[in-house]
Amino acid sequence: MLHRLYARVLALAASRRAPWWLAAIAFAESSFFPIPPDVLLIPMALAQPRRAWRYAAICTTASVLGGMLGYAIGYALFDYVALPILNFYHYQDSFEQFRQRFAENGVYIILIKGLLPIPFKIVTIASGLTAVNFPAFIAACIVTRGARFFLFAGLIRRFGDPVRDFIERRLTLVTSITAASIVLGFVAIRYV
Q1: How many domains does the chain have?
Q2: Which of 3, 18, 62, 102 has the CB geometry, 3.0–4.6 Å to 27, for a possible disulfide?
Q3: Could you tell me which residue, 95 or 23, shows the higher pLDDT?
């Protein structure tokens, strides 16, 4: 079953509309969608390694734009959504401590967590919620998302065929490692 799904994703990745889907997923993942764009970026770069840099640029741009929406969601909805929940559970003091830590270290948190395999929307919404300096937020998003996506693109350009062969031979292992890294990313959210 995994091999059929993998073959389907590779076929989609080679289609003419794939860059639009990549941009849509990268945008959505930074603001409200749980699936990271890597699931399409990697197969697209494997299908057409010469376009890997272009795909990384699309991913980075769309992810930063989606991050702006995530920031706006956190910033605008705080009074209507978060504050009543905090008041109901009497977490105002805990949130103030979180807000203070995030305000002091927000850019570093964005830089670190933007590289991890966790939904980036958690970082963007928290940034808006805690009113991280917006230009610093944008700069950190460009750096961290660009680093992540261009790293993947560079590795695939450099090692494309061996990477594809490894994935195809060990698809279950690759899928398991990806799932484990996502779980570890959520654990890192809790403790970093």
Answers
A1: 1
A2: 62
A3: 23
